[in-house]
């Protein structure tokens, strides 16, 4: 059980940062992950008064506050339009609506969970994370950083010509994913992000230039085989590494084929 001695609604990011330097204190998001832990907390730090529950179109950037819920990600028109529905696809299988009404972006990213749909999606968007003390870092760097006590303030998406497709494989609809896959084309660069390996998500560029000339069936297959060969995968109760490798090939191929279809409809 989670035992909390004191609860503070902080009035500034500075106050939150100072408080979270004490390892016995903890920042709370929706508390859905935290409440499953067996630990004693001196002070629970709530960011709910800091106006971080908005998704804002800033022209060249989209800003997503740390207290934005997964349900907001799912239903927000700015994100829906920018990602052509991929953001919704990335979160809509996470447990249920009531759950997604509580789970926050900050709580979903700060833990850098090895099963995370949310981390996979933001990595595919080449997003940035703003930390109160650590400043603005790319999400790729953030995913590999050693966690130090800091406040995740917001996620920043730098807008660019984008196509992105998100897919996941689950044994049952609302379970943790067996594998997550997002392919994106930002300007002319293709990337493929694979998560729930069951390790943290990782992004691959098309280093061997399979997709340079066209998204043909052959080039898509070659790219999928190449990534599946490079992937470091593990086994857990949801699937073996070998099963995940087979699934990876299928998801990458399906996602790139869907991306090709999107491109056809766009032009
Ligand atoms: C049963 C269950 C099933 C799930 N299934 C999936 C799934 O299929 N796919 C998926 O992607 N996710 C899944 N999740 C994870 C879930 O979506 C959330 O990511 C998770 O609950 C954390 O979000 P939260 O807002 O509840 O964070 P909390 O539990 O409140 O916090 C989690 C951690 O983040 C820290 N934290 C929170 N906010 C901040 C901040 N602003 N700055 C710094 N640190 C912060 C907390 O201190 C804590 O260490 C699942 C979780 C549960 C419990």
From TrEMBL:
Pfam families: CO_deh_flav_C (PF03450), FAD_binding_5 (PF00941)
PROSITE patterns xrefs: FAD_PCMH
This protein's UniProt keywords: Flavoprotein, Oxidoreductase
GO MF, one example: oxidoreductase activity
Domain FAD-binding PCMH-type as annotated: residue spans: 1-162
Name this protein carries in UniProt: Molybdopterin dehydrogenase FAD-binding
